[in-house]
Write a structure and sequence with these properties.
The protein is α/β, with parallel strands linked by helices. The protein contains 15 helices and 15 strands. It is globular. Keywords: Hydrolase.
């Protein structure tokens, strides 16, 4: 339904992967082949995850890295991630999508920027296609290794010609711009401290040529300011603007340390941002002032970030985290549960340039929705506001989760045929990557 519209005791009809119609309890329902009685449960659009590094669930809570700063954490883990191949990428993507589905997420982007082997994004799309999960693959890249003044080892970076050629191949092979698409592709150099200025410019030009989205990390850490001034003679946002990225096709991850003036400039340029609450807290950095950015007209979505920093892929938890951080930062009236839900749905859909079809339940939208379930005890006494109760008194999970009208979670159980076979393979791949074999 349109933003802010709530139907108490209503119904929603789906047809051919789309929302057909909605109505109140006093309106007749259309004929249906199947009826799911939500039993007084809350129904929302599927949540949309706008920033993730799915491969990182192979190094979850990796002990040597857990107490480091962002840069220390990265330099500890990059050598481990150099072992990524098609098999481990497929497995980590499959596991990430399963975890996201249980948390009510029906669409996710993923920022795959480590490429020690070719065809890793092909492996991701194989997993999401098998599951039936709506996916925006972010073709990430790194060109600057330790030898060039960057952070990653040479084994995980690529030359510019390889990056641009593969970016174009992935767009031509997998990007589906048509309505109802299940797979789209965005271009996503990792960060200013891991790629060259020339690849930033060339990627922006390629995205314009093929009309795809652009994504990168921006102004995430105070060390980034020092690095940008030393290497480029500009602050991160100035650099971002100079290389042609300040356009409506760009969304940026984290975006914590922009100045008030820079925030206004990016909002006016149509750039959007995603907040990753748990990652910000675990790495003990600051966090974006989401409400201030939204007040400027900037769409702000919510992301899980990598499973090795947030150590979870639970978008309900991130939505709650966004609400709590806003209130902790700016006071008890700073953000309601409804505003946080709006960030995780409409705001996130805007990040991905997909507001026409996802993040809402208007007739004609993709039939991506969640029937939520909280434990009975957690909702005892929550009688006056089901939306606030859902986010404050959880945890909540998907009771039914539908993507394109297909139930991938039914009665709280994942309906993924390969999961039992994937999990032991994932455990073996994770042990190998962590050096535990």
């Amino acid at each position: 339904m349109e933003a802010g519209r709530e139907i108490d005791g209503g119904w929603i009809a789906l047809h051919a992967g789309r929302v057909h119609s909605t109505g109140s309890s006093t309106q007749p329902t259309p004929p249906a082949e199947r009826v799911i009685d939500a039993g007084g449960r809350l129904v929302t659009p599927g949540l949309v995850n706008t920033h993730h590094h799915m491969y990182q669930n192979l190094t979850r809570a990796f002990a040597p890295a857990i107490n480091g700063t962002l840069f220390q954490w990265l330099t500890t883990l990059y050598p481990r991630w150099a072992a990524l191949d098609e098999e481990s990428t497929y497995l980590s993507t499959y596991v990430a999508c399963a975890e996201l589905l249980l948390s009510g997420c029906t669409t996710s982007s993923d920022h795959m920027y480590v490429h020690p082997k070719p065809n890793l994004i092909d492996a991701q799309i194989k997993a999401t296609t098998e599951i039936g999960f709506r996916f925006m693959a972010n073709r990430g890249s790194m060109t600057r290794s330790v030898e060039d003044g960057g952070l990653p080892p040479a084994s995980v970076v690529q030359d510019e010609d390889t990056i641009l050629s593969d970016s174009e191949r992935l767009i031509r092979t997998f990007h589906d711009p048509t309505p109802g698409a299940m797979t789209r592709v965005a271009l996503a150099p990792c960060s200013m401290f891991s790629v060259s200025e020339s690849i930033m410019r060339a990627t922006a030009e390629l995205a314009e040529q093929h009309d795809v989205r652009l994504h990168t990390h921006l102004a995430e850490d105070k060390d980034e300011d020092s690095y940008a001034l030393e290497v480029y003679g500009r602050r991160p946002v100035e650099y971002f603007e100079d290389v042609g990225w300040a356009t409506p096709r760009s969304w940026v991850a984290h975006y914590v340390y922009g100045s008030a003036e820079e925030n206004q400039r990016l909002a006016a340029a149509g750039v959007s941002a995603t907040q990753c609450p748990s990652s910000n807290m675990i790495l003990a950095g600051d966090t974006a002032d989401a409400q201030a950015l939204r007040s400027m007209g900037m769409p702000v979505g919510i992301g899980c970030d990598g499973s090795a920093s947030s150590d979870s892929a639970n978008l309900w938890m991130e939505t709650r985290g966004a609400m709590l951080l806003a209130r902790y930062r700016s006071g008890p009236s700073a953000m309601s549960a409804r505003e946080a839900l709006s960030m995780a749905t409409a705001g996130s859909a805007a990040n991905l340039g997909w507001s026409d079809e996802i993040g809402h339940l208007n007739p004609g939208a993709c039939a991506d929705l969640v029937i939520w379930e909280s434990s009975q005890l957690s909702q005892t006494g929550a009688l006056t506001d089901p939306v606030e109760g859902w986010l404050r008194s959880g945890p909540a999970s998907g009771w039914y989760v539908l993507v394109a009208g297909n139930p991938l979670v039914e009665a709280g159980e994942l309906k993924l045929g390969e999961l039992d076979e994937v999990l032991p393979r994932h455990a073996a791949a994770a042990a190998s990557m962590q050096g535990l074999n």
